[in-house]
Amino acid sequence: MRRLSLIAALAFMVTAWPAARQAVNLRVDQARLSRLDAVLQQYVDENRIAGAVGLVLEDGKPVYERAVGWRDKAGSIRMTPDSIFRIASQTKAITSVAVLMLVEEGKIGLTDPISRFIPAYATTTVAETKGGIVQVVPAKRAITVTDLLTHTAGISYGTGADVAVLYKAKGLGPAAGFGWYTADKDEPVCDTMERLASLPFAAHPGEAWVYGYNTDILGCVVERASGLSLDEFFRTRIFGPLRMTDTHFFLPRDKQDRLVTVYASGSGGTLERAPEGPTGQGHYVDGPRRNYAGGAGLVSTARDYARFLELVRNGGALGGVRLLSPRTVGLMTHNQAGLLHNGPRLGWSLAFETTEQIGGNGLDPVGAFGWGGAYGSVYRVDPSSGVVMVLMLNQIPNTTDIRSKFQTLVHQAMVP
Known about the structure:
The protein is an alpha+beta fold. It contains 12 helices and 18 strands.
């Protein structure tokens, strides 16, 4: 029986190996990729999205770039490839890179307790619900840098029914747009994050994957460890070297005409202009330009963000500039959260969601990674084929399936 099992295993390896090898050699078929044009335009024509920019790189070279629809529909201003979008949680990966740059310089340790940089986190609490009663108890252990990078610190956005009132009273949770918005705060991000430490969290460190203010806290850690504001660190250490000339926390006024209007999916699949303020257009031009949110604060273009992703895909270097070592990039692009984030199909690295099984994220191959933003954008990196894909739109809420359609149409274009 054992011999038969061994023979069966060898037979599987022989039949599976060519397919696996073939997958590495897949390339973009331009004719198949052009199917994207019709689908993106259909969503615009059906008034499901106002407009979008799609960009696909293969081995660092653009093989697809399209701007469809409207930057401002009411003003009849068409979308262009250089349109500037609010990227929300796409900011997180950039902050993670900043943290890891400082890890490589010996200024931050992955196992450091956050209290080393923000003393208010020396003692934190957790809201536990037992028998319908919420009890606030001490956290079982200290929160570390790795806990925050992997979103396993137990920190939410404070919008849950058990804690929403507490968070709102301190200008967070329901008082911060959809929970994550701080662009209208007239205070440094470290002040906001110190106040957060006094609130109860959703789970004990290391016990659950909870999406929340983790990376905003890390933005403060970057400031404390580097001695620079997060804005200055990003500008001088990341955006300048990578020539990401259109990525900012607050948009220079001479670029505001390129900022995309935010729309919202309405009832019955209709489209409407999103409101002013934190749940819509935001304060990304006028500010007050004081709070640099490492979790969701940036605006950018598809081209700029694709350059950032290409740096990661290329092992930490791009255009003669190296920001990270290949070993650090390997760590930040492979699952570090065990089964806590949709395991075993998906994982979470020190910066990205990772695909751990075929079918975990549509047609993603194992080893692909990426994420998206609250305004509707999505991105994915497939190291096996050298492909980077970015879809930018500004629609909140976005109830369409355009993000999954975009990924599928890029993947189906990958053929031998």
